[in-house]
Design a protein that fits this description.
Bound molecules: adenosine-5'-diphosphate, alpha-D-glucopyranose
Helix content: 25-40%
Shape: globular
CATH class of the largest domain: Alpha Beta
Low-confidence stretches: none
CATH superfamily of the largest domain: Glycogen Phosphorylase B
Mean pLDDT: 96
Largest sheet: 9 strands, mixed
CATH topology of the largest domain: Rossmann fold
CATH architecture of the largest domain: 3-Layer(aba) Sandwich
Strand order of the largest sheet: 3-4-5-2-1-8-9-13-14
Number of helices: 18
Strand content: 15-25%
Length: 491
């Protein structure tokens, strides 16, 4: 199949979260299975310049209609990974030459509607300019949802390149929908007839994700449990009814994300000071020491160490984590290492704890991939108390690095972690809790520490169970192929 993957970020080029990881590793897996895959994303010069040294120009002076009468200009760079996998970058300084992808100092760029409407339109134009015959147009989240609307519109449906194409939209996070003032419809070049409840209209505003959900041939999200949760009022962020509509039509699927096992392998990871495997965990113990050293914690092999690597956003439930660590820092013999950035009050609270308890809590406010690998490898436990979690990748990274996840039972966390009990020790890989209260999280973290301290064989068994689990895309890339076939009956 000729698959076009549209996204706002992909690792290693530009990344704010798991969408970037998936936007590299899933196209890679699909290409390995023999499909032709073209990934389109913006070129963010301030972020990607050195990572794109070996890109070549694929097209100069791409005209992109913007609004009813204007035309913007872009160019396309190409990074060819293999014969059948290329990354294409849409270059437009006006829209993408920014220090960060979506916001500055916590404030969304005021022209985000224009930026991503432009991206979606530029991707459609680029497909024509590069003469790609599309079988599957795979949109991701709100930033590229509009491609699915364009595909069905009179602007594009008569081109040969799109005549066999079906669209998929994958929801990586329903908490972000691209909701803007309705006047932004102007930039799309689509008429007001599109501003209705079956497309963009959402409480008199423009909702790009909603339009994608209602126009795509198939809708998917990144875990089976989340696919059920988003149909509820509690998790649906106002889109539960349109999603229910798609589910009743049999057009909504939940497919679990996989992980990039080339990047995330403790035996070969070059970002770690020591490598290890489930056969020999000496390197893991050394990584723990290295982590303690890095953060100035007491150098002790025997103390339970909890790690966190996360965006500090409401979604991640770290407000509850912050509420519950106070008592643990005062009363328990434990250590914490946290890497993250986001909400200012959380950054400040964590930095304050690090000052008050320098031997027990270390934190790095900011984004640091190398440190993230060390936290995954050197911690005993990895904490994810998410309010909602469409899939979550970190719990999988932690399991393959022999670090036991402590997670709230929601979304992909529910689907990937097997809860500990004495009876299922042969399968257990982590600890789950249900109610998002500080006491529930604290009790679970303490319970996990008691197993670590008092039942070493059980702790080690869980750790090995996690390390042996296959989270690679081998299983789930096949489910995407099936989804594509379901959408496009030619295959
Ligand atoms: P989300 O996409 O909702 O943030 P995921 O668990 O799917 O959650 O993916 C998060 C990705 O971002 C992981 O690869 C994680 O290691 C990475 N990450 C998040 N915050 C940081 C940080 N501060 N430094 C380094 N990596 C981070
Ligand atoms: C989103 C979700 C996360 C998921 C990632 C990749 O950022 O918050 O749960 O793992 O997308 O699909």
């Amino acid at each position: 199949m000729n698959i076009v993957w549209a996204t706002s970020e992909a690792a290693p080029y530009a990344k704010t979260g798991g969408l970037a990881d998936v936007s590299y590793s899933l196209p890679y897996a699909l290409a390995e299975n023999g499909h032709n895959v073209s990934v389109f994303m913006p070129y963010y010069p301030q972020i990607m310049a050195e990572k794109c040294d070996d890109t070549e120009s694929a097209y100069e002076l791409l005209g992109v209609p913007f609004g009813d009468s204007n035309e913007e200009w872009a160019s396309i760079r190409q990074h060819k990974i293999s014969e059948n996998l290329s990354f294409y970058f849409i270059e437009s300084d006006r829209f993408f030459d920014r220090p960060k992808l979506y916001d500055w100092d916590g404030n969304e760029y005021s022209d985000n509607a224009e930026r991503f409407i432009f991206l979606s339109r530029a991707i459609m134009q680029a497909i024509l300019a590069l003469d790609i015959k599309v079988d599957v147009l795979h949109c991701n989240d709100w930033h590229t949802a509009l491609c699915s609307v364009y595909l069905k519109s009179a602007l594009y449906n008569s081109f040969d390149n799109f005549s066999q194409a079906k669209s998929i939209i994958t929801i990586h996070n329903l908490g972000y929908q691209g909701i803007f003032k309705k006047s932004n419809l102007y930039w799309t070049g689509l008429g007001w007839d599109y501003f209705n409840v079956h497309c963009f209209e959402f409480y008199d505003q423009l909702n790009l994700l909603k339009a994608g959900v209602l126009t795509a041939d198939m809708v998917s999200t990144v875990s089976p449990t989340y696919a059920g949760e988003i149909l509820s009022l509690e998790y649906g962020f106002g889109l539960n009814r349109p999603l229910q509509h798609r589910a009743v039509q049999g057009k909504l699927r939940g497919i679990l994300n996989g992980i990039d096992v080339l990047e995330w392998d403790p035996e070969t990871d070059k970002l770690l000071p020591y490598n290890f495997s489930h056969r020999d965990l000496t390197g893991k113990a050394r990584c723990k020491m290295a982590l303690q050293k890095e953060f100035g914690l007491a150098l002790r092999p025997d103390v339970p160490l909890y790690g966190v690597v996360s965006r500090l956003a409401e979604q991640k439930g770290l407000d509850v984590f912050i509420d519950c660590i106070d008592a643990m820092l005062k009363e328990d013999d434990v250590q914490f290492v946290i890497i993250g950035s986001g909400e200012k009050w959380q950054e400040t609270a964590l930095a304050d704890y690090a000052k008050a308890y320098p031997n027990k809590l270390g934190c790095h406010i900011g984004y640091n991939n190398k440190l993230a690998h060390l936290v995954e490898a050197g911690s005993d436990f990895f904490v994810m108390p998410s309010r909602y979690e469409p899939c979550g990748l970190n719990q999988m990274y932690s399991m393959v690095y022999g670090t036991i996840p402590i997670v709230r039972s929601t979304g992909g966390l529910e689907d990937t972690v097997i809860n500990y009990s004495a009876q299922n020790i042969n399968n257990a890989t982590g600890f789950k809790f249900y109610d998002l209260y500080p006491a529930a999280l604290r009790d679970t973290m303490r319970w996990a520490a008691s197993i670590y301290l008092n039942d070493k064989p059980a702790f080690k068994k869980m750790l090995i169970n996690g390390m042996k689990t296959d989270f690679s895309w081998h299983h789930t890339a096949v489910e995407y192929e099936e989804l594509y076939r379901h959408a496009n009956s030619r295959f």
